[in-house]
Amino acid sequence: MPKLNLTTRFVDTVKAEKRTEYWDETIRGLTLRVTPTGARSWSIVWTGETDGIKRRLTLGSYPAIDLHAARKRALGELAKISEGADPTTRKRAVRAEMTLEELSDLYVEKYAKPNKRSWQTDERVLAKDVVAIIGAKRKISSIGRRDILDAIDRKIDEGKPIASRQVLAIVSKFFNWAVAEDYLTASPVAGVQQRAKARSRERVLSNAEVRYVWKQIDLASLSAPMRQIVRLLFLTGQRAGEVAGMQRGEVDLTAALWTSPGARTKNGREHAVPLSPAALAIVKAAIATMGAKADDPASPLFCKIKTAITSNAVAHAVRDKLQLKEGPDWTPHDARRTMATRMAEDLNVDPHHIEAVLNHITGHRSGVAGTYNRSTYLVAKRRALVLWAEHLDTNVSGKKAIVVPLVAETGV
Questions:
Q1: What is the spatial distance between Cα 319 and Cα 302, in angstroms, rounded to a whole number?
Q2: Hey, which of 27, 279, 333, 335 would disulfide with 233, CB 3.0 to 4.6 Å?
Q3: Helix, strand or coil, per DSSP, at residue 270
Q4: What pTM does this model have?
Q5: How far apart are CA 256 and CA 298, in angstroms?
Q6: Is-contact 195 212, C-beta < 8 A?
Q7: Which SS3 state, helix, strand or coil, does residue 180 take?
């Protein structure tokens, strides 16, 4: 850990590729912890006189506590330590009185929101499947392994084994954070194993099921933006969060092209999605309702009041309003899988072109070859998506389909 005479400029501008601690040469024991996300926090570290164990006391985060305030606070705590006091014991005792609900809210604000694109999932799972089950007012110090197992088993008993795995993953991250931030000395999740096997979903809707859902979109009690989103899920084959979060500046109406930035895609890569005439018509209809907001590139196309519709909202709409009368339930992601499967099996689209439409990175498209083939893939993606939209229209209308195979292009 580097030792420096910390300055305000350094503290304000320092960056780190991995979590790094900088020791202040002015106040011995004062450290600045910097994370790759840019978060900075102050601590003092000292060795106990009687047991020789190193202890840490977190003083707060920058910029809420600047360098001058951190040094002043460090001097005060170090003075107490020299007189025999142990501030970690005092602070941990206070923190242990926090309730599960309070700590859950703190985790979402302090960790999940700044660091996780899926923070809303963490917030929902903790509130619904952890806090509501274990008890909002339970002291965090009283929570044990049995409480965690009960929360997980509840999801399994509901017939939701995959959801139970998600609960364990999120509650584990939550309590590990609590330990790292010194709210607890140990995690009650330690040693808990997954209790349900993960199974890959293989749900592909039949043509008849797609036809039913497509017609049901107009009949169900859905908002106009939600209807547009669900139809675009089928027409584009993109992820629900990416479709629902589409922004005005991402769409080129003249080129009939939607370019989703890397910040909003799962693999972090910019993704160009050609819009078939049917998809373009939906996007134009959404833009027409935006009014003055259409001039702002950052404005979402699909809004509920003033905020963009979330992938969770889409999933709930599909689950509650668009399920089939018979057969297994389907999810928004199944629309994506259905498009890919129908492209391959019914329309003979080249597998590499399907991967390109889905924004999957394969060896065939990685590296230099992927860069050189980008424009060619755009043409192939447009052809595939237009063909798919025509197939979808034929299926919904009941017309006879004329399938023209897409021949794989050399080098693509």
A1: 19
A2: 335
A3: coil
A4: 0.54
A5: 18
A6: no
A7: helix
**Which phi and psi (to 5°) does residue 55 adopt?**
-125, 155
Q: Where are the alpha helices (DSSP H) in 83-206?
A: 87-96, 100-107, 113-115, 119-125, 132-134, 145-157, 161-180
What one-character DSSP code corresponds to residue 25?
Answer: S
Radius of gyration in angstroms for the set of CA atoms belonging to the chain, rounded to a whole number: 27
Q: Which two tokens stand for residue 276?
A: 């078939």
Under 8 Å between Cβ of 40 and 14: yes
* Contact criterion met (CB below 8 Å) for 323 and 330: yes
Backbone angles phi, psi at 380, to 5 degrees: -65, -40
Give the chain's largest Cα–Cα span: 88
Report the chain (412 residues): mean pLDDT per 10 consecutive residues: 84 89 91 89 83 80 90 89 70 71 92 84 91 91 91 83 86 92 87 69 85 91 93 95 93 95 87 95 93 88 78 87 82 92 89 89 48 65 95 81 41 36
Cα distance between residue 290 and residue 398, in whole Å: 34
CA distance 15 to 4: 15
How would you classify the pairing of strands 3-4 and 20-24? parallel
Quickly count: other Cβ atoms within 10 Å of residue 33's Cβ: 19
Rounded to the nearest 10°, the torsion over CA 223, 226, 227, 231 is 180
**What distances in angstroms separate CA 345 from CA 23, 32, 377, 410, one per listed residue?**
62, 57, 20, 21
